[in-house]
């Protein structure tokens, strides 16, 4: 289920979200820019985004070469008094920036190419 905080809890695609298995978490888009990036990267890397979705709903805090904490000034995404900062790397430099709060993965920004901030 993709929702934008402050925009209600209805799914953007109008469909019903699948039930979550007990070990799964929910993904949310933090803002309109994250939603726009998600739609754009989905259009060009559908299979990779499906894999990213599976990973982010099953093991978002596991570290490997694809999904890991961010470094330097970007390792902290302030939200409600806590700092978070993780990224999932797609091909061609595309990135999904997110943090995890409770059982929700919040997508902060989605880039279709390598973001300048991490070069």
Report on this structure.
- By secondary structure, the chain is an alpha+beta fold.
- The protein has a single domain, classed as YaeB-like fold, CATH 3.30.2310.
- Helix content is 22%, strand content 27%.
- It is built from two helices and seven strands.
- The protein has helices at residues 32-44, 46-58; strands at 26-29, 67-69, 77-79, 82-84, 86-89, 95-101, 104-111.
- Strands 1-7-6-5-2 form a five-stranded mixed beta sheet. Strands 3-4 form a two-stranded antiparallel ribbon.
- A hairpin with a 2-residue loop joins strand 3 (77-79) and strand 4.
- Helix 1 crosses helix 2 (46-58).
- It is globular.
- The N and C termini lie far apart (31 Å).
- 21% of the residues are buried.
- Residues 1-12 have low confidence and may be disordered.
Question: Helix and strand layout, with pairings?
Answer:
Blueprint: E1 26-29, H1 32-44, H2 46-58, E2 67-69, E3 77-79, E4 82-84, E5 86-89, E6 95-101, E7 104-111
Parallel strand pairs: 1-7
Antiparallel strand pairs: 2-5, 3-4, 5-6, 6-7
Compressed to H and E, one letter per element, the order equals EHHEEEEEE
How would a textbook summarize the main sheet?
Answer: 5 strands, mixed
CATH homologous superfamily title = RelE-like
Mean pLDDT: 74
Question: What is the number of domains?
Answer: 1
Q: How many DSSP helices?
A: 2
Q: What spatial order of strands do you see in the largest sheet?
A: 1-7-6-5-2
Radius of gyration: 14 Å
* Beginning-to-end CA distance, first to last residue: 31 Å
**Which regions contain 5 or more consecutive residues with pLDDT less than 50?**
1-12
Portion in helices: 10-25%
> Strand portion, in percent?
25-35%
Number of strands: 7
Structural class: alpha+beta
Which CATH class applies here? Alpha Beta
CATH architecture descriptor: 2-Layer Sandwich
Overall form? globular
* CATH fold-level name: YaeB-like fold
């Amino acid at each position: 289920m993709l929702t934008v905080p402050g925009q209600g809890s209805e799914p953007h695609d109008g469909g019903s979200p699948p039930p979550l298995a007990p070990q799964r978490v929910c993904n949310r888009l933090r803002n309109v820019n994250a939603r726009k990036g998600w739609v754009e990267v989905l259009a060009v890397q559908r299979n990779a985004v499906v894999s990213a979705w599976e990973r982010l709903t099953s093991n978002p805090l596991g570290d490997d070469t694809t999904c890991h904490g961010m470094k330097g000034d970007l390792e902290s995404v302030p939200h409600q008094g806590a700092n978070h900062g993780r990224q999932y790397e797609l091909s061609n430099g595309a990135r999904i920036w997110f943090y995890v709060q409770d059982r929700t993965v919040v997508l902060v920004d989605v880039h279709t190419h390598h973001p300048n901030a991490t070069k």
